[in-house]
Structures are given as structure tokens and as C-alpha cells.
Design a protein that fits this description.
Layout: E1 5-7, E2 10-11, H1 27-45, H2 49-57, H3 67-79, H4 81-91, H5 101-116, H6 122-136, H7 141-156, H8 158-163
Antiparallel strand pairs: 1-2
Length: 183
Amino acid sequence: MSAAEDGPGVPAAPARTAKPARKPKPDRRLSREYAVQGLYEWLVARHDLGVIDAHLREDGEFSRCDAAWFDTLLHGCASRRAELDTHLARHGDRTPEELSPVEHAVLLVGVYELLQAVEIPYRVVINEGIELAKAFGGTDGHRYVNGVLDKAAREIRAVEVAAAPARRPGPPRRGPGAAGAGR
């Protein structure tokens, strides 16, 4: 049997092709990433926020982000930290001081967006927080972030959460009685 065949009349598996280039991250996602990095440095090293801001802007990728949203997040989270930490303490099982600096920074951004960016659906805020925690945090940090932001959303955006259709786990139903059945 030749290397080009796996058996009689069975062609070899197609050669693997290179992965397609990754889609560029949306501007706001990149802004959130930079804000989390800046807040992390601010929380850990206690550097001046202006210095952190200038340092992050020097990064080659910064020009792709929404700079105005980055400013809003970085400076808004820092200036309202006490208020945001109050929400975190109320909805988490540990104090903000006990959080890892990455989780703390991600949660500051998430709670800030829940409070100040009502044009962003709460589920988007939660999902963005999860993605940030996966990108920068520890192994299961995203689960903690998900739980805290979900609880915070139920309080901060109670009307929006109550009006949202319930999410069903698993694939949509197929069969008799399912929407679109029998077509």
C-alpha cells in the first residue's frame, strides 16, 4: 500500500494547511485588555496612573484600540475604585484585597461597565470579563469572574436581567413540538 492511500481505494487524509490568520480583536476588547494591564500595574506597583497610561500608549498595538474607551475604563475604574470595590465585596466571597490582582483588575472593569456603560448588554460585559480572565488570569479565575459579574449584574441591571430571555443549556430541541418541526 502506498503512503498516498490508507487502504484499497481510500485516499490519504488531506495535508494540514496552515491555520488562517487570527481575526484582529475588536477595538473595545483591546481597550479592555490595555485597561486591565494598566489597572494591574496600578494595583500591584502603585505607579502613577499618568505614567502607566503613557507607557501603555507606547505599545505598537495600542493604535488599534479605542483610545477613548481605554481612557474611560482606566481612569474611571481608578477614580471610582472605592465604589467598585464595595460592589465586589458584596457579590464575591472574599474582599477585594484578597483577590488576585488580575481578577481584581478584570472585575473593576466589569463592574464599571455594568454601572456606567448601559449601552453594552450585561451578557457582553460578563463574557468580556470571562475572556479577559482567561487571557490574563489563573486557571479557574474566569469562573470566579463569571460568578461575581453575574451576581453584580442581577443587582445593577436588575431590569435588563429580568427582561432577558432565559438561556437553555445544550443544543436546541429537534422533534415533535419543537419550533419549525415538520417543515
